Amino acid sequence: MKVRVIDTDAQGYLKNSADWHEGLAPLLAAQEEIVLTEAHWEVVRFVRDFYQEFNTSPAIRMLVKAMAQKYGEEKGNSRYLYRLFPKGPAKQATKIAGLPKPVKCI
């Protein structure tokens, strides 16, 4: 088995989003103390699609609004997203998705 080193910044975000693959997501999630469920994957794939369309990672307000438009109010609300990603949905979901940190996240 070939071992590959993937560069991250000091906060654990991939330096090159092209290095990401779905097999890497559970490892990134484990660093965030998250075990990925299908609900997590839905958000991870959503933020990746968002990034590909808009060339930016969604901050929390944009994530909530865009999720509500696509999946309805049940999934497009802060409470639902914080249950999945308790340390910050925008930060954790984009990190697990291998994307840059959202601009408006501290």
TrEMBL record:
E.C. number(s) listed in UniProt: 2.8.1.-
Superkingdom of source: Bacteria
One BP annotation, GO: tRNA wobble position uridine thiolation
Gene Ontology CC: one annotated term: cytoplasm
Enzyme class, first EC level, given as a word: transferase
Catalytic residues in the record: C105 (cysteine persulfide intermediate)
A single GO molecular function term of this UniProt record: transferase activity
Pfam families the record matches: DsrC
Broad class of where this protein is predominantly found: cytoplasm
Record InterPro entries: DsrC-like_C, DsrC-like_dom_sf, DsrC-like_N, DsrC/TusE
Cellular localisation: Cytoplasm
Keywords linked to the UniProt accession: Cytoplasm, Transferase
Protein task: Part of a sulfur-relay system required for 2-thiolation of 5-methylaminomethyl-2-thiouridine (mnm(5)s(2)U) at tRNA wobble positions. Could accept sulfur from TusD.
Subunit comment: Interacts with the TusBCD complex. Interacts with MnmA.
Family listed: Belongs to the dsrC/tusE family.
UniProt cross-references to NCBIfam families, sorted A to Z: dsrC_tusE_dsvC
Protein name according to UniProt: Sulfurtransferase
Organism per entry: Serratia marcescens
